[in-house]
Amino acid sequence: MAFEEKNILNRLYIVAGCMFLFALAISIKLMNIQFVDGEKYRELAKENTTKNFVIPANRGNVYADDGSLLATSVPKYDIRFDAVTVSSEDFNENVKPLSEGLSKMFGKPVAYYLDMFRKARADKNRYQLVVKNLGYSNYIKVKNLPLFNKGPYKGGIIVEQRTVREHPIGQIAQRTVGDEAFDRPGYYAVGLEGAFNDLLTGKEGHRLKQKIAQGQWKPVYDENEIEPQDGYDIVSTINVNIQDIAHHALLKQLEYYEAEHGSVIVMEVATGEIKAVSNLGRTSDGTYYEKLNYAIGESHEPGSTFKVMAFMAALEDKVIDTSSVIDTGNGVKVFYGRKIYDSHRGGFGKISAARALEVSSNIGLATIINDNYSKNPNKFIDRLKSWHLNEKTGVAIKGEGTPMIPQPGDKKWSRNALPSMAYGYNLRLTPLQTLTFYNAIANHGVMVKPRFIKEVRAWNEKVTAYDTKIINPKICSDETLKQVREILKNTVKRGTGKSLYSPDFSMAGKTGTAQTEYWMPDWKSNRRYISSFAGFFPAENPKYSCIVIIHKPSTKKGFYGADVSGPVFKRIAQKIFTDSQIIDSVEGVEKTDPAIEKDFEQYYAKLQQPAKTVPNVTGMAGMDAVSLLENLGLRVQVVGNGTVSSQSIKSGENLKKGQLITLNLS
């Protein structure tokens, strides 16, 4: 008995000791939580009951030069239906008028909506999609329909709002303006949207909220912890009217020639402001849309538009003048074992250097450059580099193509490189880089940097203005400029662009026709070309420069620059001319000629004398004859339409007021 009692006491001591150790461990842990890890657990508790909610900033707008919207953010609404939260009484009473209202708004049958709501009710669907992408006004109308007007709990309406980017002028200039990446919502990489994304985006805000129930949060403070800052607005240089003209002129030509793709740029000469950029590529079904920014990103062999640069280099280096005689032979000439051809059958023979450029003679330009630079090709290359033709223009829009001007020592250099470059091969430029040079010719030799932005604004207040930047203050002498501008005018009047000439308005420029993919084995059976035209207008006092590039037109319909790209240039120039004509003042309109004044006085005195005989009205317009005879007091009867072929009373007979005269018109 005593042994058993002692054994029980030992067990009690062990249990008491364990309890003591357990209590001691808890005390130590509590002290550790309170004093060592206390801050950590307090933060954890706070995180589970409070949360920072992001308040998105409004993205800035992109405007045209006149304030028209090119891109803006608008709210869109998706409406869904919680079929469980609505009572049976409310559902049965309102489901039909709700369906009727939706049918009236969106055109689907009433039965469609009735079946949808009843099926959602039967399936206990708490997230049934009703309609997507509503604008604000339609969202308000839907929200006020029967049942939905009872709110989210009684009416079951679920509203999901999101912000989308829209282009009010549609797909015109969409690639230049830029768009949201389809696979990365909220990400902008192309166009003005991508170039100025940091300015347009703004800064998101934050508001601290506390959890009060499952899925429900309320603000901890009356104000946001961090207020959102809306993005800045961008005012671009794009002119909506000129952009529309360029887009449709290019589209019409691409469709007719079934071309692969094309681009147009219109630049304001004095400022370098880009007034229009159109980039259209063909889809598999033959339609065209803003596919890629070819105007800025696509570098290619420019062909004959580069002949102007080569010719100017020779003029400026004084190795030729415009009257230098160039022997182009019979249209074929061999340079270092390779034949160069002219498009004119039989060749041009001996012609002046100026004429060689006007008629776009490949042999003429190759001869000029090879004869004068073959012993020192770097002299020619250095002249091109002084014009920055080997450099990007540095425009803000991402993805500018890299130019390529080879020089001795490069892999692409050979003895044939120099004559090839003379007529636009063996080098690469983008349309924008080519136009920048032509714009300098129009701008009295001042090469300005192309720009797409006029200013940055915040709340309609100017934040930053973008001024004209000069790349090269004078690309060549005034004499060279004068000569080249005259040749470019004559190219349109009597050269390769003569089909584009119009006496009603003046333009100057250079056609271009370049073979492309000629290195591919199927080229001879399937010839591909790049057609181009670069120039400026009006020719005498240029306001705009323009380049048109069309890739791979159907050779069955034509491929020469004057036929394919030139008409687009002309259409743009004509339309801009029509919208803003240049008005010349005429001096001395108030002065009178004494001889004319004397004749008028004699004529006027004769008119004052009363008529005594019937006049001859044969050959006069019917309306004029009737007016004249009635004013003399005769009654006039007219037979037919047109001019008077005969009159019933012969001219010279005595005039009797009230007498009837019949006029036969034909």
List descriptors.
alpha+beta; Penicillin-binding protein 2a (Domain 2); seven-stranded mixed β-sheet; Beta-lactamase
Would you kindly provide a written description of the structure presented here, covering whatever features stand out?
The protein folds into four domains: 43 residues; 166 residues, Penicillin-binding protein 2a (Domain 2); 341 residues, Beta-lactamase, CATH 3.40.710; 57 residues, Trypsin Inhibitor V, Chain A, CATH 3.30.10.20. With 666 residues, the protein is an alpha+beta fold. It is built from 22 helices and 25 strands. The longest helix is centred in the N-terminal third of the chain and has 35 residues. About 2% of the residues have low confidence. Strand 13 and strand 14 form a beta hairpin. Strands 2, 3, 4, 5, 8, 17 and 18 form a seven-stranded mixed sheet that branches. The protein has a six-stranded antiparallel sheet with strand order 11-10-9-22-21-20, with helices on both faces. A three-stranded antiparallel sheet has the order 1-6-7.
